[in-house]
Amino acid sequence: MNKNIILIVDDEEGIRSQMKWALADTYDVKEAAGEEDALELAREFNPQVVLQDISLTAREGAAEGLDLIEKYLDINKFCKVIMVTGHGEKVNALKSIRMGAYDFFNKPVDLDQLKIIIDRAVWVSQLEMENNYLTSEIARIKNFEDIIGDSDKMLDTFKTIKTVSGTDYTVMITGESGTGKELVAKAVHSTGARRDKPFVIINCGAIPEALLESELYGHEKGAFTDAHIQKQGKFELADQGTIFLDEIGEMSLTLQVKLLRFLEDHKIERIGGRDQIPLNVRILAATNRNLMDEVKAGNFREDLFYRLSVITVDMPPLRDRGHDILLLATAFLSRYGEENNKPNLSFSEAASRAIAAYDWPGNVRELENKIKRAVIMAQEKRIKPIDLTLPSAAAEESGRQSLQKIREEAEKACLSESLVINNWNISRVSRELGTSRTTLYDLIQKYQLKK
Ligand SMILES: Nc1ncnc2c1ncn2[C@@H]1O[C@H](COP(=O)(O)OP(=O)(O)OP(=O)(O)O)[C@@H](O)[C@H]1O
Ligand SMILES: [Mg+2]
After folding, report:
1. Residue nearest atom 18 in ligand 1 by C-alpha distance
2. Which atom of ligand 1 is nearest to the CA of 177?
3. N or C, fewer C-beta in 10 Å, the chain?
4. Residues 338-348 pLDDT 10s
5. pLDDT at residue 416, rounded to an integer
């Protein structure tokens, strides 16, 4: 794997080589003694972190010298510039932070501390790049009604939507709850020729049968006890436009017959009415049931099933959409971050993994709700698995713990071996393992190794 690139800018060779010695194991280190070389190397190698000696930049009067920070950021806005400061340069160091430097660091250089700061800077830079990439991906792959998806299954769905939107075909949208069926129905309507005409939604599962009939077809005055005035139904309201029959699987057999008749002659009759009213309405329907099973069980009319399913769009469950999960999560994070005045939120690495690992029985709706909640509750900029109340988070943590254990055991074994071979000569062990003496002493104490 390619190492991340660090640029050290300092006019003292001794300091450069000291830092390089400490960092070269982990990073690809470039060095420059002056501003011009530094910028040239920055342009050529695009380092993730620049370690900049502040006295170099400040020699012409601080304000001018600090422009260098901007120049680095112009070359790569994700570059982290760390100022290395000597005595009495704290004011300039703070100024440099205001100018966009990531951090500052005091001379004389403590190499262990330096490593930690750099590791963190690289990590932050990478996170920012990744986040930037995801955000641009989201912009690229937003489709129709802001439907986000880049997985093969979703690309198929988009293709189908494009194909049917230019037609008046009836479309049956199936899929588990929360997979985006309503979103697709809206997209089919709003990309078609009827887009400026009404889009009327009715949830057949939420309304009792007697009421559903009058909701759909309307009634004449006096048609039944409570019918004090004449009322238009949803079909009439959707004339020239589209009606979306959500949860069609819940419709009673009686109403199914009536719907079938409309599909055949495109006319309705209000309850209690005598006139046949011709209408031009496109029908879209959705269900999270397996309608074929309902047909077999005698709960759904086979002829109606085929009439409605001229085209079918089957929404895949979220867990089968691969990388889309994280794209959606990032999109919701920035949407609700903005809404709640909490910009720049991001997921911790463990949170990203927990999101990818969870199987999302409630699909996109569940993901959206969990993120909305996490954003509202968030106290810090980084969202952790626990903020998302993900059950896999706990397992994830314990998985990490055991990984940590494995790492420690390997570290201990390697260290004791090197100590024995080198007869406890700390300088030699330090060279062999590429760690500083301070770190070595800490490790010897941590693992309680004895000669
Ligand atoms: N691909 C997607 N991109 C962005 N947002 C989505 C996507 N899919 C679903 N959503 C959002 O998820 C939520 C649920 O979607 P929707 O209501 O369309 O699902 P549904 O399949 O109709 O669910 P149900 O069966 O429970 O009615 C909505 O807030 C919707 O905006
Ligand atoms: Mg729905």
Report:
1. 180
2. 25
3. N
4. 999 998 889 98
5. 82
